[in-house]
Specification:
This protein is of the alpha/beta class. It is 32% helix and 26% strand. It has helices at residues 10-19, 21-25, 41-47, 59-69, 109-121, 157-160, 171-174, 181-184, 209-218, 221-230; strands spanning 2-8, 29-35, 53-58, 73-81, 85-87, 102-106, 126-127, 140-142, 148-152, 166-169, 187-188, 196-202, 237-238.
Length: 240
Amino acid sequence: KTTLKVGATPEPHAEILNLVKADLKKQGIDLKVIEFTDYVTPNKALEDGQIDANYFQHLPYLNSFNKEQGTHLSSAAGIHIEPIALYSKKYKSLQEIPSGANIGIPNDPTNEGRALLLLQSAGLIQLKASAGITATPLDITSNPKNLKFTEVEAASVPRILPDVAAAVINGNYAIPAGLNASKDGLVVEGSDSPYVNVIAVKAGHENDEAVKALVNAVKSEKVKAWIQKKYPNGDVISVF
């Protein structure tokens, strides 16, 4: 019997993992799901060998984390996309957002860049062409509404939503906060997003038997059907 410890943020990642526990048990794998509520600790736990895999992050974040932290983490498989969106408790449309408004955005490199690219796609700002997915507010070349930015940890963005004009929130934090991208989002990322959420492992363990079994269990018709039923509005979109 093999024990496989996998770190995950609660929704939808931990829920999806819990769906496949029984399937893995039949294969002699005891899946232990360990929940985290931030983006740093589960990667450090994976690097340190406290867990065997994690499932919470998109590929650009994983690559950025490795570069900045000197970690050796690798994607075992891409599973789903959670489109980010711009939400507001105060305004019903982009046009209503006033000049000088404060916008909340995540402060980690890839999610901040992702948020700014979303605002650019909405025509609110313009970024340097070279900025790409690691854009920061310093890369803004045009800001007609003179928007200000409050940069906080991704997990905290929903909490500051009442205090700012609008905020760009990651899907796995928007969903537990009761926000629905297609219903509540003023701007929603397209389904062609490169930000695919992955099951990550320590480099060199991508082909471990237990990891391959986990990937196969998660990339199943059962999980795909569950995602479609639970998120009919496209808040989570499977890529398999």
